[in-house]
Amino acid sequence: MFPQNKFILLCKLFCLAPISNSSNVQRILSAYCLITVICLIVVTAFSFSIDIFGEGFVVSSLATSAVFVSGIVGHITVVLESLLKKKEHEYFFAKLYELEYIFRFKLGHRIQVRSDRKHILRKYSKLSVVIIICFGAYITIISTHDYLGYFWLASVSVVVNRMRLIQACVYVDFINFRFDSMNLLLKQVSNSIVQHNLRIPDIDYEIIDNTERIFVLKTIYTRLNKLVLCLNEAFGWSIVTLTVYYSLDITCNLYWLFLGFEDILDNFHIYECCVTIFPIALLLFALSHTCCKCEKKGDVARQLVQQILVSSTFDHTNYLLDAFLLQINNQPIVFHAKHFFNVNAKLLPNILSSMLAFLVILIQFQLTKNEL
Description:
The chain has helices spanning 4-13, 23-47, 58-84, 86-106, 113-144, 151-199, 205-261, 268-311, 315-330, 347-371. It is mainly alpha-helical.
């Protein structure tokens, strides 16, 4: 699969996966996380002494402060959640390895490790390159115009918060590849039953084998659903705070974009806002798309089980298929942020509608001020 050791090492560097088999290393990682939280609190306290825009830009100054504080709060939430939910991370990878064992030794199916690894590396390498380019462009813009704002105080939080969403996407893709293998085996079961019905043999050895395979696949679905619940528990508060933070960040940058086009702010703010909005929107799209794809794979599994149920003529197999179908209907694949909202295709439209409402309010403040 993905080079998990290197990926986890990178996550440890950003306090996103403070897990280790060594108790001493575990204590060091926990202390590292707590020191990071203390530093973030000190940085936040220091930031209140900085006036970014100066007089005449009260709304912009308040908006900038709100974005900065929400980013720091998001960073603190990410670190604390990673520290407190480290058992969920250990459980997640342990169950992934167990699933590979079940696929290989109980179903005779090997997960395509190399192709899946290449897919993940290609996908997230491209995403990371775009984010790094935008981050570098932002640094270049503010450096050439002597405008730093809260940048250096918030730069680490910006990187960690974006890394957290990439981490969530990678974890969900681990589940996606297991779903692909499960659905492939369900298709094979469906095809074998249809072909058997055409032959009508006296003794149905294939159906006996298919019944065992269906039972194992049902067990795999149970484990995959538990992995989804594990991710909801491990990333829930991070998704909540980062979604609020990024919604506020995009809204404020759209507002400053409006001020730039109206020549109220310098033109370089237009480019600054663009290279800020684009990677955030891209990350939110990647997260919602990856989670939505996983939910659709669960729907595909339900359709395949229904198809097998229609084709099967053996009572024992049908009872098992009925139980499997009932399980999928009662335990659907759903990614949520502590039940505040679901992470799926509807996430971006909901965020957009909220942002537009706040953006209208900010613009009205500016227009009222100009009239006065």
